[in-house]
């Protein structure tokens, strides 16, 4: 005859376990977790958890072992933060300029080197021909200050 189901208390909420058969049992709690343990293991977990759960708030990875819960939490956050965010950011920052965002700056440096090698000024004063520039007359400017 199997013993009576007992109530397992974690963080103030009782969870009744059902479905115990012989010495080794598969049981399901109200939350839906399925586990296969012996009666002695279940009683040990209940005793250890009751003491450990008095001042312990679970991270949600393991409800029974504080050490396992913290270890799993640290490993999960290490993988999530270090490997995902940091590594992805590192790879993204060293990708080539596939959208040609820096093309204008690179082209300007090449043009400056070419003009310096030929002994020309950095910007040609006749870049825009003077006959194509239309300046306003003095009457149109009026009393506006002109800063050159």
UniProtKB/TrEMBL annotation:
Give the matching Pfam families: ESSS (PF10183)
Q: Does the keyword Repeat apply?
A: no
| GO CC annotation | mitochondrial inner membrane
Q: Which keywords describe this protein according to UniProt?
A: Electron transport, Membrane, Mitochondrion, Mitochondrion inner membrane, Respiratory chain, Transit peptide, Transmembrane, Transmembrane helix, Transport
**Subcellular localization:** Mitochondrion inner membrane
**How does it sit in the bilayer?**
Single-pass membrane protein
- Positions of transmembrane segments: 75-95
Keyword Transmembrane helix assigned to the entry: answer is yes
Task: Give the top-rank taxon of the lineage listed in the UniProt record for this protein.
Answer: Eukaryota
- InterPro entries (UniProt xref): NADH_UbQ_OxRdtase_ESSS_su (IPR019329)
Q: What is its main location?
A: mitochondrion
Instruction: Spell out the family assignment given in the record's similarity comment.
Output: Belongs to the complex I NDUFB11 subunit family.
Job of this protein: Accessory subunit of the mitochondrial membrane respiratory chain NADH dehydrogenase (Complex I), that is believed not to be involved in catalysis. Complex I functions in the transfer of electrons from NADH to the respiratory chain. The immediate electron acceptor for the enzyme is believed to be ubiquinone.
Subunit text:
Complex I is composed of 45 different subunits. Interacts with BCAP31.
Q: PANTHER family, from UniProt? A: NADH DEHYDROGENASE [UBIQUINONE] 1 BETA SUBCOMPLEX SUBUNIT 11, MITOCHONDRIAL, NADH-UBIQUINONE OXIDOREDUCTASE ESSS SUBUNIT, MITOCHONDRIAL PRECURSOR
Q: What is this protein called?
A: NADH dehydrogenase [ubiquinone] 1 beta subcomplex subunit 11, mitochondrial
Species source reads: Scylla paramamosain
């Amino acid at each position: 005859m199997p013993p009576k189901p007992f109530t397992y208390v974690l963080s103030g909420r009782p969870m009744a376990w059902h479905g115990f058969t012989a010495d080794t049992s598969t049981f399901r709690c109200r939350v839906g977790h399925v586990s296969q343990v012996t009666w002695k293991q279940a009683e040990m977990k209940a005793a250890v958890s009751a003491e450990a759960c008095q001042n312990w708030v679970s991270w949600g990875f393991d409800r029974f072992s504080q050490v396992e819960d913290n270890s799993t939490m640290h490993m999960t956050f290490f993988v999530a933060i270090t490997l995902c965010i940091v590594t992805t950011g590192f790879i993204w920052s060293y990708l080539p300029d596939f959208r040609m965002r820096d093309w204008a700056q690179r082209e300007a440096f090449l043009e400056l080197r070419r003009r310096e090698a030929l002994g020309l000024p950095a910007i040609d004063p006749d870049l825009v021909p003077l006959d194509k520039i239309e300046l306003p007359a003095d009457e149109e400017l009026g009393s506006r200050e002109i800063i050159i």
